[in-house]
Amino acid sequence: MIRINEVKLPLDHSEVALHDFVINKLSINKDQLVDIHIFKRGYDARKKNDIYLIYTLDVTLKDVDEEQLLTTFANDHHVKASPDTSYKYVAQAPENITERPIVIGMGPCGLFTGLILAQMGFKPIILERGKSVHERAKDTFRFWRTRELNTESNVQFGEGGAGTFSDGKLYSQVKDPRFLGLKVKQEFVAAGAPAEIIYVSKPHIGTYKLVTMVEKMRRKIIELGGEIRFETRVEEINIEDNQVSGVTLSTGEVIPSKHVALAIGHSARDTFKMLHDKGVHLEAQSFSVGFRIEHKQETIDAARFGKNAGHPLLGAADYKLVHHCKNGRSVYSFCMCPGGVVVAATSELESVVTNGMSQYSRSERNANSAIVVGISPQDFANDPMQGIALQRKLERNAYVLGGSTYDAPAQCVGDFLAGKTVSQMGDVEPSYKPNVKFTDLSSSLPDYAIEAIREALPAFNKKIKGFSNADSMLTGVETRTSSPVQIKRGKDFQSINTKGLYPGGEGAGYAGGILSAGIDGIKVAEAIALDMLNA
User: Fold this and answer.
1) Which of 19, 126, 296, 323 has the smallest C-beta neighbourhood within 10 Å, fewest atoms?
2) Are residues 43 and 112 in the same domain?
3) ∠ CA(466), CA(472), CA(475), 5° rounding?
4) Does residue 333 sit in the same domain as residue 457?
5) Helix %, strand %, coil % for the chain, to 5?
């Protein structure tokens, strides 16, 4: 096949426009064009009233000497041979395998580590401290309604990981020369995701679809010989002479294995402490803190798409913003959720944490995203455990500011910028559940963070008209943007000082989102499989 990149066509182009473009571009006749496969479709909305679709196409031809054709286009970087994007397993377990690898955690990284190991015949044992995704969803929605928190079953802990209660975004900026991201998306489609996630430039799934997909993927792992245990917390990772020998569960049961994947997510603070106490090499890592900001979705649509707002191929508009402040800090938008809601995402008692969530339809009235300030290891003495302590301090302070009821502290943007408290909302109704309490957010974050956000919001308004409108809503606090800890690993994906321990995903500091965590999970599975075969 031939790949044609950067094919630019008007938003409302005709059905035959792609065929006409290919025929003219390659100087072939229509009978030589067999098929056009859309590998990727995005859009260019830099001119909101003149939006274009941008395609990458894989073209099947007949009666054409493709080598000669490529020679003709040798100086045109838009025309190349289509690469091989198929996934190839690196190993196959022998039938008489005696050791079973252990996977701790069943978020996106753990899910794909377990799935790929199972597909290669290694019959992994997956240990998840939370509940199955269906039961976990019940506990999470109950907390949002009644303020009854289950610290082991919530937005952070349980099958599917934190990404289950999000927008279900499936795009990433990680380099992916092996097209592992495509493997992740293909598995999601096989489990029931919309087929469009394969080719749209910013695919998303939404919470309700993710729940059923994760259940199907779990069944697939079990059918392939894997074992999954829910409500099973790892109390200790057993290490002998710097080599993992197995795990001890909270029940006292010991499971032996010399290959343990650690896919614990960014909120398993007790596990981080256990690893630190055991001497596993951890390093402090930058993270960010801030608020969730909400606008009416129609405000963002108009600012981004102009007269094209509401076009079915564009959907609800998103944005990505960054501002470098005078005090040396950077403020940026994170985890933008079009047509979504702000959700309670704490996993600890007497703490408030916010996150954003959308369904596949992205049809809620508000848009929301995190507006966060970068925190460097120097801000917490370059100590990974102090980074966790800082997060916890801010979350517990937010709990008090919200009235000590799991309501979140909130403030209109106009009042926040003016430094005053007004106990009523404006035109943007906050979506956070259980509820919000209007207060002065200036004491909810370090002074340098408040200063930076107050500088950034008016700057963002120059890029997105209406962004810093007085009625826009801030809800605090957002602290779980990423892990403050990195569990250092080598090129073999093993901990640099603990053989047999394979840190992966967001919690270990090697991913940021569903897609990149899934990709990292595949790499961890491959490393484990190859090491087990060579042991």
Assistant:
1) 19
2) no
3) 145
4) yes
5) 30, 25, 45
Overall residue count recorded for the chain in this entry: 535
C-beta separation of 351 from 395 below 8 A: yes
Query: Number of folded domains in the chain?
Result: 3
pLDDT band at 15 (very low <50, low <70, confident <90, very high): confident
DSSP type of residue 341: E
With tokens 């996106």, the residue in question is 108
φ, ψ of residue 83 to 5 degrees: the values are -75, 160
Upstream peptide bond of 477 is cis (omega within 30 degrees of 0): yes
Q: Nearest-CA neighbor of 40 among 144, 217, 171?
A: 171
Amino acid identity of residue 58, one-letter, is: D
Give tens-digit pLDDT for 214-243.
Answer: 999 999 999 999 999 999 999 999 999 999
**Band (97; pLDDT cuts 50, 70, 90):** confident
Question: What's the rounded Cα separation, in Å, for the pair 41 and 5?
Answer: 10
| Cβ neighbourhood burial of 206 (10 Å; 0-12, 13-18, 19+) | buried
Same domain, residue pair 270 and 163? yes
pLDDT tens-digit map of 194-212 = 999 999 988 989 888 888 9
In a domain, 91, yes or no: no
Tokens of 346: 């704490």
Domain endpoint, select from 22, 51, 81? 81
CB neighbourhood size of 195 (10 A): 9
Q: Is residue 11 part of a domain?
A: yes
Could you say which DSSP state residue 90 is in? S
> Is 464 in the same domain as 341?
yes
Specify whether 233 is located in the same domain as 379.
no
Q: CATH number of the domain that 144 lies in? A: 3.50.50.60
Cα-Cα-Cα-Cα torsion 375, 378, 384, 388, nearest 10 degrees, comes to -40
